[in-house]
Write a structure and sequence with these properties.
Blueprint: H1 10-18, H2 26-36, E1 40-44, H3 51-65, E2 77-80, H4 84-97, E3 105-108, H5 115-123, E4 127-130, H6 132-140, E5 151-155, H7 157-162, H8 166-175, E6 181-186, H9 191-200, E7 205-208, E8 219-225, H10 231-241, E9 247-250, H11 254-266, E10 272-274, H12 280-291, E11 297-300, H13 302-305, E12 315-318, H14 325-332, E13 342-348, H15 353-363, E14 368-369, H16 374-383, H17 385-410
Parallel strand pairs: 1-6, 1-7, 2-4, 2-5, 3-4, 5-6, 8-13, 8-14, 9-11, 9-12, 10-11, 12-13
This protein binds adenosine monophosphate.
């Protein structure tokens, strides 16, 4: 079925056509009809599957056909997200899709000045995308009115719980009217999420089960065994052999982020770090540079990159294995967005083999092995500008030593 055949406003279809979205992705195909009918939905959607549009399209349609006149009674739809980056990104999707309608969306998050946000809210907004902290702050002071909110979306619900937002979610319910439509979107499902979903909504929930393999089919992902100290050489080779490709490298900690950036700089590879320890402005700047392709290599931690949609990431490298198995899915899901093809490779050291087993258990199947034979392994290390530099240094030192001793002998 094509979007043309959906009973959604022609204004939304115009935006979809401009985006070149012809057919719905699986999650959109399954979620749009029940959301349009006003049902509560619990959707388990892999990252990169088009889940934002899966809720944005029917929400914009519902608000559009109602032809809201004044905005005096506050926010009509609230989308709660765990991170600022996600808030910005989801807002962009809403704005793009609602461009030809009169539906207005906006996003608020912490870490930036609140005055411009308040000014914008006072002008009147239909859809608000927000992170919990700033949302509560503004709502408690009356800048966000939720008494007439009709739709609540909890996006990345699993991550919100990981970050300890459960109390916030429950508190939020006290601000919202009892009768409303609730939509849960989560990349993973577990008992806690299920319980939370059932405890928050009274209507029956439609559960959309994701395919058995939580990694999308268009992502070619594999693992290769590389010792910790050699990982940088393999990364260097991969980057140098793919100079035109956008590569997103995941590491475990902020410190590792900076270390890998430095190691790459030593071999003349320009890269940037993205981690939670950076200021919001700095993070945005780095993300924009990467988005625009001005830097080809981004080294990120899980928290900073979760849910971020960066178009045309052609390669994901798990430089370190993720501590949480589900983060494997989020990481490799940064490539192969929508219907594009993507590639991901995991560098697994001997110490990390247990984590790999856990991840494979979570995926329910083994990850393809990319065998590197001994010869290739040492070729990669030789390939490194760093090892060449070391080699050259050694040679020069050796030459100096020999010349010195020859001179001594002559004397
Ligand atoms: P999301 O899972 O919402 O982060 O979306 C992942 C990517 O899929 C984004 O880059 C979207 O632009 C793209 N996308 C979403 N829906 C469609 C569609 N129906 N056809 C093609 N691409 C899509």
């Amino acid at each position: 079925m094509k979007f043309e055949d959906y009973s959604i406003a022609s204004e939304i279809k115009t935006s979809l056509a401009k985006l070149n979205y012809r057919r719905p992705t699986d999650i959109q195909f399954k979620s749009i009809p029940p959301i349009l009918k006003g049902e509560d939905v619990l959707a388990i959607a892999q990252t990169g599957t088009g889940k934002t549009a899966a809720f944005a399209i029917p929400i914009i349609h519902q608000l559009h056909v109602r032809k809201i006149k004044g905005r005096g009674d506050g926010i009509k739809c609230l989308v709660m997200v765990p991170t600022r980056e996600l808030a910005i990104q989801i807002h962009q999707v809403f704005e793009t899709l609602a461009k030809h309608t009169k539906v207005k969306s906006y996003c608020v998050f912490g870490g930036v000045e609140e005055e411009p946000q308040i000014a914008k809210l006072e002008k009147g907004i239909d859809i608000l995308i927000a992170t919990p902290g700033r949302m509560f702050d503004l709502a408690s002071r009356g800048f966000i009115r939720l008494q007439r909110t009709e739709i609540l979306v909890l996006d990345e619900a699993d991550h919100m719980l990981d970050l300890g937002f459960i109390k916030d979610i429950r508190d939020l319910m006290t601000y919202l009217p009892k009768k409303k439509q609730t939509l849960f979107f989560s990349a993973t499902i577990n008992e806690v999420i299920k319980k939370l979903a059932y405890s928050l909504v009274s209507n029956a929930i439609r559960i959309q089960i994701s395919p058995k393999n939580p990694v999308a089919r268009n992502i070619d992902h594999s693992v290769t065994f590389i010792e910790m100290d050699d990982k940088r050489f393999f990364l260097e080779r991969l980057i140098k052999e793919n100079p035109e490709r956008k590569i997103l490298v995941f590491v475990r900690t902020q410190v590792r982020c900076e270390r890998v950036e430095k190691a790459m700089a030593r071999v003349d590879i320009e890269s940037k770090s993205l981690h939670g320890g950076m200021e919001q402005d700095e993070r945005k700047k780095v993300l924009d540079l990467f988005r625009q392709g001005e830097i080809k290599v981004l080294i990120a931690t899980d928290v900073s990159a979760r849910g971020i949609d960066i178009p045309k990431v052609e390669f994901v490298v798990n430089y370190d294995l993720p501590e949480l198995s589900e983060n494997y899915v989020h990481r490799v899901g940064r490539t192969g967005r929508g219907k594009e093809k993507g590639q991901a490779v995991t560098f697994c050291s001997t110490e990390e083999k247990d984590i790999l087993t856990e991840i494979e258990g979570f995926l329910g199947q083994p990850i393809k092995r990319l065998e590197v034979d001994r010869e290739d392994y040492s070729t990669t290390i030789d390939f490194s500008a760093e090892s060449h530099a070391d080699w050259k240094t050694l040679m020069t030192e050796h030459e100096k030593e020999t010349t010195k001793s020859k001179r001594k002998k002559k004397k």
